Automatic annotation (TrEMBL):
Designated name of the protein: Protein-tyrosine phosphatase
Transmembrane segments: none
Species the sequence originates in: Microbacterium telephonicum
MF (Gene Ontology): phosphoprotein phosphatase activity
Pfam families, A to Z: Y_phosphatase3 (PF13350)
PROSITE patterns tied to this protein: TYR_PHOSPHATASE_1, TYR_PHOSPHATASE_2
All copies of domain Tyrosine specific protein phosphatases, residue ranges: 130-169
Superkingdom of origin organism: Bacteria
């Protein structure tokens, strides 16, 4: 049965994705989501009854203070805070407010210097190796005998969460096309009220809704994660080597990650 958490928009299990050597990712081990601040009573009950026991939050302290996660109080959850600045809307909003409030020319300059999603993801990878390796360790340590499955999330669940999920899946040997498709599904999941609300907030900051900015805020085009995966291949020889070289993941930890996700 597919697990749904009411009050989220971009929650899903990575289980079932095809592996390059045959077979598929084990269900109930690695989940991904947008923020958990709006869970309904039904969502809280579903989370409490799920195999999830570890919540990895990639948001910054500012984001967490603005929208604290709601978690069931019926059992404990291990919350791991691994703040990644790249992809934080609060940081981008502050930059735009400073630029727009000071001078329209500075706002135009700030708009022109916004990164593409692919560039943003490379920045995450360049600075977040230790954090991503820690997530790999948490997934590797999960078991079927207790609620220790891992859910990773940020605010939208598309950028920081998307990069982390792609990394782990690639390291486990998931087919690249399936990794890209899983990443790209976020834009459709977030379309509608959530995306409209985010764009309205950006407009209130005085920023024009140019196509690059709209994509940065609400998009998840295949080309963005392909750019990040291409960087991993070129700079490290793939996600597995990246987790070891940039994150310090040991051989046995990498093997345990693969065994846990591949089943």
């Amino acid at each position: 049965m597919t697990l749904t958490i009411d009050g989220t928009r971009n929650f899903r299990d990575t289980g079932g994705l095809p592996l390059t050597g045959g077979g598929s990712v084990r269900a109930g081990v690695l989940f991904r989501s947008d923020g958990l601040q709006s869970l309904t009573p039904a969502g809280l009950e579903a989370l409490a009854e799920s195999p999830i026991g570890v919540v990895v939050d990639f948001r910054t302290p500012t984001e967490r203070a603005m929208a604290p996660d709601l978690l069931p109080d019926s059992r404990p959850f291990h919350v791991v805070e691994l703040s990644i600045l790249e992809g934080a809307m609060s940081s981008m909003a502050q930059d735009l407010m400073k630029a727009g409030g000071a001078d329209p020319a500075l706002l135009a300059q700030a708009m022109a210097s916004l990164p593409t999603l692919g560039e943003l993801y490379v920045g995450m990878l360049q600075h977040g190796g230790a954090s991503f390796a820690e997530v790999a360790r948490l997934v590797a340590a999960s078991t079927d005998t207790a609620p220790t499955a891992v859910v990773v999330h940020c605010t939208a669940g598309k950028d920081r969460t998307g990069v982390a999920t792609a990394l782990l899946l690639d390291a486990a040997g998931v087919e690249r096309s399936a990794i890209v498709a899983d990443y790209a599904a976020s834009a459709e999941n977030l379309a509608g009220p959530w995306a409209e609300g985010m764009l309205a907030m950006v407009e209130r900051l005085g920023a024009p809704l140019t196509p690059p900015l709209v994509e940065l805020v609400t998009g998840s085009p295949a080309s963005a994660i392909e750019h990040a995966l291409g960087w991993l291949d070129a700079e490290h020889g793939g996600a597995a080597a990246y987790l070891q070289q940039a994150g310090g993941l040991r051989d046995d930890e990498l093997a345990a990650l693969g065994a846990r996700l591949r089943g």
